[in-house]
Write a structure and sequence with these properties.
The chain is of the alpha/beta class. Among the domains are: 291-479, Alpha Horseshoe (Serine Threonine Protein Phosphatase 5, Tetratricopeptide repeat); 547-682, Nucleotidyltransferase, domain 5, CATH 3.30.420; 684-815, 3-Layer(aba) Sandwich (Rossmann fold), CATH 3.40.50. 63% of the residues lie in helices and 8% in strands. It contains 37 helices and 15 strands. The strands form four sheets. Strands 3-2-1-4-5 form a five-stranded mixed beta sheet, covered by helices on one side. A five-stranded parallel beta sheet has the order 7-6-8-12-15, with helices on both faces. Strands 9-10-11 form a three-stranded antiparallel beta sheet. Helix 22 runs antiparallel to helix 24. It is globular, with a radius of gyration of 31 Å.
């Protein structure tokens, strides 16, 4: 068969992004065709080099490009050689020579015109962009767009719009980024450029993540991954992982951010792109620093700084140096460090890193304050004026620094104003996030603001202000509308698959079979479920509950709510509507006593324990319990006979409050939040008329327990044996006023939303519960571990019991 080079060459170039393997095959066919001219072979090698680079094989791609240029020169085609040079310039950039890349383009420019010259201008803009010269890069991109209006080339225009959109995102210009990237998506879709359409949907997610629009960003990134799944492009995974890690970092999902960033770094190392390796190492350093992994962060940041300096990428090197300074600032405060931050802020501004410049000024101001130099701190903060368009995390950090400055000057009113404004920013941001996970972790942005507010309230002896600050980052979970649709078929299918795989995994482990493939499948399904649920967007709003309303709702209940500040335990008690502050002393030793209580309770719960063991456990529980009451419970609360509401903090969440000697026989409700308790109290119904009783598998005594409870209710719905499936349980939960679930539970410390109740067909997770249109007013979980929740930075909780209340249960009874 005769090869028709011109037609097949067009096919090869057209498939470079969407199907690079086929592009390689087509180009190779032309190269080997006896009838191909030298110029045609040069173009074919050019196409093959681009396709191989797209597949992540940089070395083979570079070799093809060099040979293509040599053949173009041999053919006497200066224009073709110059066109190939526009691609070779990126080889120089990716191997660490931005200056060399610009030299290549300077030599090629005189030979090009029209769309070819526009492509060169775009490449030059990209090189300047990656080097940090954003003003020159912008000029190049705009020149390329102008030229392409006169000499249309859809694919070239998509590339320019892509690069311009990403530059806008880096500068914090979200409207500009959205305009450019949305235009790139629309043009790519209209031209059938599937990969470029998917890539720019992903880029839109990156831009929105930079602006703090986390749910929208996750929706874009997940949508892009669905589009990419239809293309055989595994080599883009590292880029996808990098941007996802950035999103997770902004969401305060730090453990997952570190894992994802490390995976991205490993991926780009395999590809050998020095530019991407330096960028990925910098991202890994930032994620590790945020997660408190200081030495790992230092190692990655040092690698990035060294590589960026070798590449003469001064703007990116400044950013990496800023991260190194942040690492050095851990456990250290001195004037030299503060001055470094101030200097870096100016350099970051010059290079267009506006968001990072804000962070550097905030860090510098805090360092100056720690050194007793408030005026120098004030001068840095005075540079931060137009902050309304900044992401929520940045705005919260600015208000935090302003609050610290006002506090250091003795301006308590100014400090309270800064805290109040910052916490309002955090709360409004939480309300825009759809997923419970995002909302819960977003409270961390306000943690230090809460600390200042609580500290001021303690100093000023203002108990209601104390409560107001503690509740500010928690109440969005209770008052904002739930966004997840109960009839989400995609989520239902993923959860059903997870139950099957988990059941198969347990069976395989039980018989000693190889379970690695099942574990990988389980992990993949969990990731898919997390990605899917994070796409939901919050509706915002929701009526807030004031502290005055919450105290009024207490009625005849007493309250004690705790905070841990500077290693000391503080609390506010409310009895008969009157609130009082209490300094309860140092935190040291409390966690040990709580652990001793838990151990004693476990000993008492063992059926096979001897009487002597039980007596010893009871004596230990009484002794340690009385000690904890003295340390933790204000006298006015102990003396009161009122029903008690306890809102713990930190390690106090792990205490079985009802087991304390002074509280036995007294109604004690433990809640993650006073506002949460208030909301639950208001929605609590009358006596239950529809009762669900379910017994899970392999729990001794579960059936007997259910039968005993059933005797006290008229016509309850009873699920046991093969009938106690996850789907049937969820269906009946939505119809019931009271549910008693006697089944094994498991708390997942690594991912609390995958904490489970064991049903006949597999685990029922928090994600399953979120699908319920309504939940019973009261839910009883009788087995161990089901009441455990993770305590997040900012005071929010994640676990089965806390999620049940967030999703609509008025009360949860759980060990």
């Amino acid at each position: 068969m005769t090869v028709k080079p011109n037609r097949t060459l067009r096919s090869a170039f057209a498939l470079v992004q969407d199907d690079p393997l086929t592009a390689v095959d087509i180009a190779t066919g032309i190269i080997l065709a006896p009838s191909a001219t030298t110029a045609e072979r040069a173009e074919a090698r050019w196409a093959r080099g681009l396709a191989r680079r797209e597949r992540g094989d940089l070395q083979a791609g570079a070799e093809d490009l060099f040979e293509a240029r040599q053949e173009a020169v041999a053919a006497g085609d200066e224009v073709l050689a110059a066109r190939i040079d526009t691609s070779l310039a990126l080889v120089a950039l990716y191997t660490g020579s931005a200056d060399g890349a610009l030299e290549i383009l300077a030599g090629a420019a005189p030979h090009l015109s029209g769309a070819d010259l526009a492509r060169l201008e775009n490449q030059r803009g990209l090189i300047r962009h990656r080097s940090g010269d954003l003003a020159a890069a912008t000029a190049d991109y705009r020149a390329a767009l102008h030229r392409l209006r006169q000499h249309p080339d859809a694919a070239a225009e998509v590339f320019v719009l892509t690069n311009l959109g990403l530059l806008h995102a880096q500068q914090g210009n979200l409207p500009g980024a959205e305009r450019s990237l949305a235009a790139a998506v629309a043009l790519a879709e209209s031209e059938g450029l599937r990969y470029l359409a998917a890539a720019n949907r992903h880029n839109l997610g990156y831009a929105r993540a930079q602006a703090g629009q986390l749910s929208a960003a996750m929706d874009d990134m997940a949508g892009a991954q669905e589009l990419l799944a239809g293309l055989d492009r595994p080599e883009v995974l590292a880029v996808v992982q990098s941007d996802l890690a950035e999103l997770l970092l902004q969401s305060n999902l730090l453990h997952e951010a570190v894992t994802t960033a490390d995976r991205a770094l490993a991926g780009v190392r395999q590809q050998g792109n020095e530019t991407d390796i330096a960028d990925a190492a910098l991202l890994a350093a930032r994620c590790r620093l945020a997660a408190g992994r200081i030495e790992g962060a230092r190692e990655a940041a040092a690698e990035s700084v060294a590589s960026l300096r070798r590449q003469h990428r001064r703007a990116w090197a400044a950013l990496a140096e800023f991260v190194l300074d942040e690492i050095d600032a851990v456990g250290r405060s001195d004037v030299a460090l503060a001055e470094d931050f101030a200097d870096l802020a100016g350099r970051l501004d010059q290079h267009g890193w506006s968001g990072q410049a804000v962070a550097a000024r905030v860090d510098g101001a805090r360092a100056f304050l720690a050194c007793g130099e408030p005026e120098r701190a004030a001068r840095l903060l005075d540079r931060l004026r137009d902050i309304a368009t900044r992401p929520a995390g940045e705005r919260a950090a600015i208000h935090l620094a302003r609050g610290l400055l006002a506090e250091s000057r003795g301006d308590r009113r100014g400090a309270r104003r800064a805290v109040r404004t910052g916490l309002r920013v955090v709360g409004e941001n939480q309300a825009t996030l759809g997923a419970l996970e995002f909302r819960s972790f977003a409270a961390g942005h306000g943690a230090q603001l809460v600390d200042i507010g609580v500290r001021l309230a303690v100093s000023d002896r203002r108990p209601r202000a104390f409560l107001d600050h503690l509740e500010s980052t928690r109440q969005t979970l209770w008052v904002a509308p739930r966004p997840t649709p109960p009839d989400d078929d995609v989520l239902a299918d993923l959860l059903s698959q997870l139950r099957i795989v988990t059941t198969d995994l347990r069976a395989a482990v039980g018989v000693g079979a190889d379970a690695d493939a099942l574990r990988r499948r389980q992990l993949a399904l969990e990731r898919s479920i997390s990605t899917h649920t994070r796409r939901s967007r919050g509706e915002g709003g929701g009526r807030t509950v004031s502290i005055a309303e919450a105290i009024a709702t207490l009625g005849d209940h007493a309250l004690v709510e705790y905070a841990i500040l500077g290693g000391r335990i503080h609390a506010v008690s409310v009895v008969g509507g009157r609130a009082q502050l209490h300094d309860l002393g140092p935190e040291a030793g409390v966690a040990d006593d709580i652990e001793a209580c838990t151990f004693a309770l476990h000993r008492l719960s063992r059926n096979q324990a001897s009487q002597a063991s039980r007596d010893a456990a009871r004596a230990s529980l009484d002794e340690v319990g009385r000690r904890l009451v003295v340390r933790l419970v204000p006298v006015r609360v102990v003396r009161s006979s009122r029903p008690l509401v306890v809102v713990p903090a930190g390690p106090l969440h792990g205490l079985a409050w009802g087991a304390l000697p002074e509280f036995r026989g007294r109604a004690v409700s433990v809640s993650p939040s006073l506002v949460g308790w208030t909301v639950a109290r208001r929605r609590g119904g009358s006596s239950p008329t529809r009762v669900l009783l379910a017994a899970g598998p392999d729990l001794p005594g579960a059936r007997a327990e259910i039968d005993a409870v059933a005797a006290g209710h008229r016509r309850p719905t009873i699920l046991t044996g093969v009938g106690a499936t996850a789907d049937r349980t969820l269906t009946e939960l939505a119809r019931s006023d009271l549910a008693h679930l006697a089944c094994h539970g498991a708390f997942r410390q690594d991912n609390p939303l995958f904490s489970t109740l064991s049903m006949t067909d597999g685990p029922l997770t928090v994600h399953d519960l979120d699908r319920c249109a309504r939940l019973p007013s009261c839910v009883v979980l009788s087995a161990c571990s089901v009441g455990t929740s993770a305590v997040l930075r900012g005071g929010t909780l994640l676990g089965l019991a806390s999620a049940l209340m967030t999703f609509g249960a008025s009360s949860v009874v759980a060990p």
